[in-house]
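Here comes my example:
=====
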Amino acid sequence: MSNQPVVLYVEDDIQSRRMMDMLLKGRMKLSSVTILEDSEQFIDRVNTLNPKPDIIFLDIHMKPYNGFEMLTMLRELEWAQNTPIVALTASVMNEEVHQLRQAGFDGCLGKPIDIVTFPDMFNRILDGESIWRILS
């Protein structure tokens, strides 16, 4: 892939945002990374993004819109229908994984993110693989 992937990450936890920022921009050298710290006016903000994200990471437990609600909004956008959207959550029970799959997420990564395996998983998700890496 010669063009760098465009990333959107929605996360209300400052530590998680810092870690992902460091990982994506620092270690992975990605230049087009947007990190939103809340889901206020979510769709309006997403619609202003240019270029559009190639991959989207959503924290599930957000306000005012949670990850499921943001996913629903995104899937209504034509450009986002085939964009990989991955849930990030610290509290993953089997039933939640089932809900995430049912809702239409393309994968789920448990938090904290594993900085060693993340770049590989990131690329595999971009290649169309569905990754459900849940840490108990």
